[in-house]
Specification:
With 124 residues, this protein is mainly beta. It has two helices and eight strands; from the N terminus they run ββαββββββα. It has a single domain, classed as Ubiquitin-like (UB roll).
Length: 124
């Protein structure tokens, strides 16, 4: 088994960045624990730890916007991973956008730089 260092944080969580395998777009940042890591390796689909719900979740379980793992990059300290994913359904963001990073700072405001793929009210 590949070892990742989950001991550096007191809560046993490490950052997992999801990045589009084809074009490199950063889709989202979430956290994983050892169980989410193992489920990801076993299934080939991104699993994360929900800090608010305190449970493992399969990305896209409710929305259908599954993240299929194509490759995984691990940093030099083995405490951060990048999931290179094929994003099914067109939206990684639970608010219905292709990326969670769908806004940029413009002056003292946010400017939306992506169009919504779905309305969360229709999905969740």
């Amino acid at each position: 088994m590949i070892e990742i260092n989950f001991t550096k944080s007191t809560d046993g969580l490490i950052p997992a960045i999801a990045q589009d395998y084809h074009n490199g777009t950063v889709l989202m940042l979430a956290y994983i624990n050892r169980e989410a890591w193992e489920k990801t390796l076993q299934t080939g689909k991104a699993h994360y730890w929900s800090r608010s719900r305190k449970t493992i979740w399969l990305k896209g379980e409710s929305s259908g916007n599954i993240q299929e793992i194509m490759d995984i990059l691990v940093d030099c300290d083995e405490d951060t991973v990048i999931y290179l994913v094929k994003q099914h359904g067109g939206a990684a963001c639970h608010k219905g956008y292709p990326s969670c990073f769908h806004r940029k700072v413009k002056g003292n405001a946010f400017e939306r730089i992506e169009k919504r793929v779905f309305d969360p009210k229709d999905v969740y």
